[in-house]
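Q: May I have one protein plus its fold?
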Amino acid sequence: MISFTNRGSFKNVERFLKKNQNISINKYLKTIGQRGVEALAAATPKDTGKTADSWGYKIEKDDKSTTITWTNNNVVEGWYNVALMIQYGHGTASGVYVEGIDYINPALKSIFKDMADEVWEEVTSV
C-alpha cells in the first residue's frame, strides 16, 4: 500500500496533467523520423549513393507503446541489406573480409538526444 500526505495544493500537478493530456507525439515522431533519414543519408558511406538514398522510417503504435524504425531498402539478391553490410562488415566472393564502419549509431545518437531534449522541454514548459 502507498499513501502520502499533502499540505497545500495540487494546483501545479493538476495544471501539468491537464496541459499535457493533449500532447500529440505524432508530430514529434514524424519530425524525428525525417531527421533520422537525413542524418543516416548524410552519414552513409557513398559509392553509388544508392544506399544513402534508400533510407526511410515507419511508425508503429499499439495500446502500450509507439515505435519508430528506420529502414533501408537497398537489398542485394533479395536478402542482403547493403546498409547492414556496411555497418557490420562482410565477406567477398574472393574470400576477403571487409570490416564494417559504424556510421548508423553516431548518426542516430544526435537524433535521440534532440528528441529527448524536445520532449523534456515540452513536458517542463508548464
